[in-house]
Amino acid sequence: MAQKPSIPKGTRDFSPAEVAKRNYIIENIQHQFKKFGFQPIETPSFENSDTLMGKYGEEGDRLIFKILNSGDFLRKADEKAYTEKDSLKITSSISEKALRYDLTVPFARYVVQHQNEIEFPFKRYQIQPVWRADRPQKGRFREFFQCDADVVGSDSLWQEVEFVQLYDAVFTALNLKGVTIKINNRKILSGFAEVIGEKDKLIDFTVALDKLDKIGEEGVKKEMLEKGISEAALEKIQPIFDLKGDFSEKIDVLKQILATSETGKAGISELEFIQRAILSMLLKTAIIDLDVTLARGLNYYTGAIFEVAAPQEVKMGSIGGGGRYDDLTGIFGLKNMSGVGISFGLDRIFLVLEELELFPPAVTGNTRVLFINFGNKEALYALKAVRKLREENVTAELFPDSAKMKKQMNHANKRDIPFVVLAGEEEMAQEKYTLKNMKSGEQQTVNAEELKAILSAQ
To answer: What quaternary structure, including any partners, is listed in this protein's UniProt entry (predicted)?
Structure first.
């Protein structure tokens, strides 16, 4: 009995219509990337394990897909770890490569390797798949595309301002209204850790705080207590869970909470700079909001942190995010190379546009006209017309087999092709074509120029 085919959990096949819609999103994002001056690069789908491991925090490292060494990988395995069934220790001896977890760390590696060829500041964009061994659920997949834009070689806050505008430009182009660009600053989070006397537990603090949307306030506090953060410390930061008001009102509260932290005050200053600039250049579609609980859980962020929330009527996680990293390339030996970048979550944006019915009808790029095949002689006559139509950017095709008329017509209907052309002996003798509108049923006999004009105009 033949094995029933399947695909791994968290992965998907895409139909022609779905691919067309995904390409619509990618093309809009790519167009804005180019308008903002970003240049494309690509990196391998897998990296050396030591390039990726230790860059995403403990939880991130667990989600990296490892690739078994080729050949007899157990021959070089750590025998003690193998005997003790210690999976963590044995991994390094049987797996030297891993699928990339994101595009940012591979980009940092790229910058270091190609530093002598790059003109800084370097603005790059990258649209490629990434893989995470996460638990699949709505909007969360194990294989998905990221659409990243980064600038390295500049610590200017004008880059952050431009990224807010870039988000707004993309969502405006996609006609996606009601998107919220949440912003915070890693220095604010460091300031919180300082004022509660838990500076050495910054990572534990931010990882727990980043789960606020998933596990709620009580869940976050419980996790912090389990990590050794005291009850007294939690009482000191209670105001951040209750913070309300507009951007400026939240800033005023932060100034009170972080009055004794120089790091925290520096973060406030950076946020105020970005806010003032955006107020001078109002956003067209998106809303910007200060979210002091936003942490994003990644160790490499050092300044501004971004996360994009879908419109409230759509129950979806973040559809984009990013932030400032002052020394990401330092992990590969290139010091003092500040950078900032953002990412668009293609798959989640797709789901949002689908749910809100925001894809334009023409996006699917369906074949416009199908020529009916009556036999070899007629097929050749039809193909000459097909070629001329394609030269005019009309999507046209010939049914490959001289099957029954009903079968060919049904094929056009099932594929939602709006027009068919019938060209038999009578049409060939007159150098004409019979054009049928499949929706209205109307037929007309036209010459080549009229055929081209009708199909090009609609």
So the answer is: Homodimer.
Closest to 164 in 3D by CA, of 347, 287, 314, 332: 287
Q: Indicate the helix (H) or strand (E) that contains 151.
A: strand 143-152
| Contact predicate 237/196, CB 8 Å | yes
Q: Under DSSP, is residue 59 helix (H, G, I), strand (E, B) or coil?
A: helix
Cα 188 to Cα 170, 287, 301: the distances in Å are 28, 21, 12
CA distances from 205 to 281, 299, 430 (A): 35, 12, 80
Based on the number of CB atoms within 10 Å of its own CB, is 13 exposed (0-12), middle (13-18) or buried (19 or more)? exposed
Question: Which residue, among 89, 10, 103, 11, has the nearest Cα to 52 in the 3D structure?
Answer: 103
* 73 CB burial (10 A radius; 0-12, 13-18, 19+): middle
Interval 407-418 mean pLDDT = 95
Residues 11-43 pLDDT 10s: 999 999 999 999 999 999 999 999 999 999 999
Q: What are the structure tokens assigned to 305, written together?
A: 């942190």
Is the previous residue joined to 121 through a cis bond, with omega within 30 degrees of 0? yes
At 270, which amino acid appears? E
Q: Torsions phi, psi of 65, nearest 5?
A: -75, 120
Distance, in Å, from the CA atom of 292 to the CA atom of 240, rounded to the nearest integer, reads: 7
> How far, CA to CA in Å, does 146 sit from each of 32, 53, 127, 246, 344?
15, 19, 6, 31, 6
Q: At what angle do helices 158-173 and 262-280 cross, to 10 degrees?
A: 50
Helix (H), strand (E), coil (C) string for 23-54: HHHHHHHHHHHHHCCCEECCCCCEEEHHHHCC
CB 161 within 8 A of CB 280: no
Identify the three-state secondary structure at position 455: helix
What's the pTM?
0.86
| Closest C-alpha to 343, from 20, 33, 98 | 33
Strands 143-152 and 46-48, sheet pairing: unpaired
Asked whether the beta carbons of 346 and 25 are under 8 A apart, the reply is yes
Residue 81 has pLDDT above 80, yes or no: no
Cα–Cα distance, 316 to 280 (Å, whole number): 30
